[in-house]
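Dear support,

Our group has been running a series of protein-ligand predictions, and this particular one with beta-alanine is the one our PI (initials K.S.) wants archived with full inputs and outputs. We had some confusion internally about which version of the output was final, so please treat the block below as the authoritative record. The input we submitted was:
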Amino acid sequence: MAKPRAIRTAHTVATLRAQIQQWRAAGEKIALVPTMGALHAGHVALMTAARERAERVIVTIFVNPTQFAPTEDLSRYPRTLEADLVKAEAAGVDMAFVPDVAEMYPDGFCTTITLTGPALELETAFRPTHFTGVATVVAKLLIQALPDVALFGEKDYQQLQVVKRLARDLDLPVQIVGVPTVREPDGLALSSRNVYLSPAERATATSLHRALNAAAERIARGGQVETAVEEARAAVCAAGFQLDYLEARHAETLAPVDGPDDGPIRLLVAARIGATRLIDNVSVPTLT
Ligand SMILES: Nc1ncnc2c1ncn2[C@@H]1O[C@H](COP(=O)(O)OP(=O)(O)OP(=O)(O)O)[C@@H](O)[C@H]1O
Ligand SMILES: CC(C)(CO)[C@@H](O)C(=O)[O-]
Ligand code: BAL
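Confirmed final output from the archive:
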């Protein structure tokens, strides 16, 4: 007979909160890892970092419709719940919160979060309603679970800055922790959307990270930011991508920067290959 799973699954906010109440009563700290499922080693890194910070780890698995535009890949987004539960359990997760759309957005739902600051430009120029959907669902998840800590990947760097600002601005009593990007051996950032890539596109995809790294090194050695960024844009296009943006931004506010005097720099890219849109980012090291 199959061994029963140690990981619990909650489908409703009421079940989630009842379990959390028991853990709280025992004085246990709680970490939350929000995901859209199709779990990979990047998600596992978030869960491992969560385990190090709390006695109890909850992963949320919800393909949030409000962060997809009607033209985007909501219907074909990979959904692999059974495999996800096996991976989450192996990573030491105590509970998976797997709500359906009606649980998160009941009839009459009409409240959203409006953003400026780090949400401006970059992704928003190409996905204008995306961060409103992300911020609304993340705020709901944080309020539903009221964790001590919530972990987000640096792979979605603008999202991480938006969520940090959201928690601060709405006085949500949670520490938002960013976890470094997990990469394939050739540098491609792990992403649930990498399954869309054909073998030829997969081979090309490594050029995103290579171009960002080359630009970061050049700036770190004293090169002009704009020249380094222009070269990286040209390299990404030459590799066969259609570029949405490749920008140098202040690492926290995501405001435009001219050089290192403007503060720590992050390079961010989004580009399309075939029907797949990939994002990536790196920090510009400061040479001491
Ligand atoms: N390679 C990675 N390294 C570290 N964290 C990651 C990585 N990929 C995703 N994450 C983080 O996992 C969390 C859930 O992300 P999500 O479920 O959207 O996965 P994803 O691989 O980013 O999928 P997508 O292809 O939709 O962007 C987010 O905080 C995201 O930043
Ligand atoms: C944070 C998130 C789970 C909200 O739906 C999603 O944007 C993601 O997976 O990065
Ligand atoms: N990881 C970000 C989720 C999205 O692209 O919708």
